Each structure stands twice: as structure tokens, then as C-alpha cells.
Amino acid sequence: MSAIVTRFAPSPTGYLHIGGARTALFNWLFARHFGGTFRLRIEDTDRQRSTDDAIGKIFEGLQWLGLDWDGDVVHQFSRAALHAAEAHRLIAEGKAYYCYCTPDELTAMREEAKANGLPPRYNGYWRDRDPAEAPAGVKPAVRLKAPREGETMVQDLVQGEVRFPNTELDDMILLRSDGTPTYMLSVVVDDHDMGITHVIRGDDHLTNTARQTQLYLALGWDVPAFAHIPLIHGADGAKLSKRHGALGVDAYRDLGYLPEAMRNYLLRLGWSHGDDEIISTEQAVAWFGLESVGRSPARFDFAKLDNLNGHYLREADNARLAGLVAGQLAKDLGRGLSEIETARLHGSIEGLKARARTLVQLVDSARFLVAARPLALDAKAEKVVAAGTPGRDRLAALKAAIADLDSFSAAMIEGAARGLAESTGAKLGDIAQPLRAALSGSTVSPPIFEVAEVLGREETLGRIADVLGA
């Protein structure tokens, strides 16, 4: 197989959405699997809707996902003159022609076709007419002189052989009447000039591929291999919308998902490797092939993403997670964390991450480590240590039992709690839960004796005293 060159070519008219991210991933994996090249092209020919902010968001999203591209980024708009030159070459070769139809005439054609039960297409009015008959003052568009008989066949690497009757493909516009190239022309010229060997994109582009195939052949160029992957639907099978998860990649980052979890999840949206669900990026590069892409729409499921992200959180390096959590806590607090707070966070992260599915949950569960005293207790915690309850009495007894421990370690604190439980006929949980409420403000936390050790003697006894009012 010759050197593989793939590309991701988003339009910078909005955020990098989840479908685009998956397309980028598949192109990246295919190129990396074969030791090929993965290029990035920004299709910014729509000057009114393309923005620098959107371009920045695309770069940021790809970088966060860890999808590095090769070579310089190609900006399509800067190549408009090259695109136009190829259209004029086709005119010179008799493979394209000037079309002088006005917008009103084109509308009338479409209406007539619909009235006759035909698809609303251009009828080729100027295809074989003499340009000398052109009306004065009308700037022409340039159209491809597409074949009218037979069919155009796409040998797709996912969909198989797909045939399009040429009667269904009209003479598409290559240059608009103002001389600007259309998307269809620009894409073909750019893919050829960039040496793209494989075009992997959504199956909503299949008809475009048939038209582009005609253009490749007219230009005398080799047609790249095409692979059209099914679109992503919601868990209910409906077309993906914002309520299903059709968000920008930056939104998933802000929702607390790890990039490695997103890569794994996007990979499994339409691609499979046996029954494997947890697939590292290294395995994905080694295993990826288009033959394992399914033909049915993939279904986006937040519950599965949460479960997968929880797995990657548990596997993640503690120092890395502590750094991410510290950054968010500092942002929320409007100040940097102290050395003591940072040490608490690093000491607790192993226990905290075991219960979290997202970084947002992890940050929320770590807030008690940096909270100002006295802590605000949630309703359940308040109930555990309310005045007159056994929990409050047990908390007071535990405070006395641990105040003068020789070593304020988790093992020593737990030993004191067990001793108290045995002497009073209580269960260990009956002693631990009031302590958890006092130290974390909640009834859920990492192992509470480990939390007490991380907080240290002074802070632990202080938080208990805050609750007891003594």
C-alpha cells in the first residue's frame, strides 16, 4: 500500500462538534495505523460565517483530544485562485461551460421539475448553447459538463459499491457568478494538491462523493479512496441533537470528561474490535481498520460515556488529577491553594477518584478539603449530628478519644473508633458517620479515617469542635 494521507477538513462556522471529532479521530487513527500522514484543512470559503474564534476552537478541541496533525494547516480560502484556475482549464478543454441563467430562471426550472414530479435540478439550458447568445450584463457561473448517460460508481470502503444514475446528477456549479469557487470544486482541488489518498467522512456526503468523482475524472486525476461512516444518533435512535449530546468538544471537557475517555468512547461509536470496550489509544492505533466500521448509525449514550470516564478516572495518575482539581478549585475560589490545601488534595485524591465519574464530580467531592470553617453541612449530615442525637454524642466521645493519640494516622484513628464502638456496643459505622459529617459536611466521602489523617490533628479536632459548638 502506498503512503496513506488522510485529512480532517472542518468548516469554521461554529464549534468542533462531536460528529466532527469522531471523523477527525477515525482519520487520525487510520493514518497513524499505517504510519501515514494526517493533515488538517480549514474550509473557510464561507467568509461571512467563518470566524477566527471558531478556528481557534477547532485547534483547541483537536489538541485537547490529543489528535496531532502533520505539516502546516491549509486554509482553503487562500487557495481560491488555484481552484478557479482548474475550472477555467475545464472550460478550455470543453469539460465545463458558462451558465448565464438568472436566479429567477433557476427557480422557474426547479418549480417546473417539481410540477412534473422530477427532482429540482438544473436542466442544462446553457450546456450546449453558444455564449454569444448570452444576455447583456449577466455574469455567468461555471458548470461542470457532467456525463448524462450511464452511472457514477463509488467503491466505498464502508458502504460497499454505491451506484448513482447520472440522470440524477446535474451539472454542478464550479464557480459562482462572482467568480468564487464552490465547496465542491475547492475540496477536489485541495484533496488532489494535498495528496489525500483516503477521504473518511460522514455518510451524508455520499452524493457529494459521486459528484466529486465526476469532477476528479474530468480533471484527469486519480480518485482517492472513500469511506463514509454512519452518522451518530441519540440513544433513542433519533437524529443527534443538543439534548442527545450534540455539543462542542470544549463542552465535554467542561463537563469533566477526560480526553482519553472521549477518544475511547468516540472510537466505539461505529467501530468495534470484538467485545472490547476499554481500548487504549495505543491499542486503537494498532487495531484500527475501516473494515470494522459498521454501516448502521451509532447511538450516543451519556450513561455509557459516564461509566467509561469513571474507569479512566480510576486509572489516571493521581498527581495529574490533583493538578486538574486544584486548578478548578483555585478558579472557583478566586485564589491559589495553600501548600497545606494542596497536600490535603494530593493525599485524598486516591479515595476521591474511586467514587467519581467526571472531573466535575471529583472537584465537587474535594471542596471540603479547602472549605472555610465552619463547614456548611448538607441536610443529611446535619441530621446525623443534630443536637440530642446519638451521633452527636458519639462524635464528642470520639473527639476525646483521638485528641491525644501518639500518632495521628488513619490506623490509629480507626483503632480509637473501633475501641469506642466496642465499649459502647455500637457499630464502627455508627462512629464513622458522625465523623464523616463533621469533616466533609456530607455523608459521602473517601475513607474517613484517611481523610482525618490528611486533614491533620488540628484541622480534624477543629472541625469536630465547630459542629459540637465546643
UniProtKB/TrEMBL annotation:
Enzymatic reactions:
tRNA(Glu) + L-glutamate + ATP = L-glutamyl-tRNA(Glu) + AMP + diphosphate
According to its UniProt record, this protein's enzyme class is ligase
Identify the residues that bind ATP.
242
Give residue ranges for domain Glutamyl/glutaminyl-tRNA synthetase class Ib catalytic: 4-306
Q: Where is this motif: 'HIGH' region?
A: 10-20
Show which residues constitute the signal peptide: none
NCBIfam families the UniProt entry points to: gltX_bact
Protein name as catalogued: Glutamate--tRNA ligase
Q: What is the lineage of its organism?
A: Bacteria, Pseudomonadati, Pseudomonadota, Alphaproteobacteria, Rhodospirillales
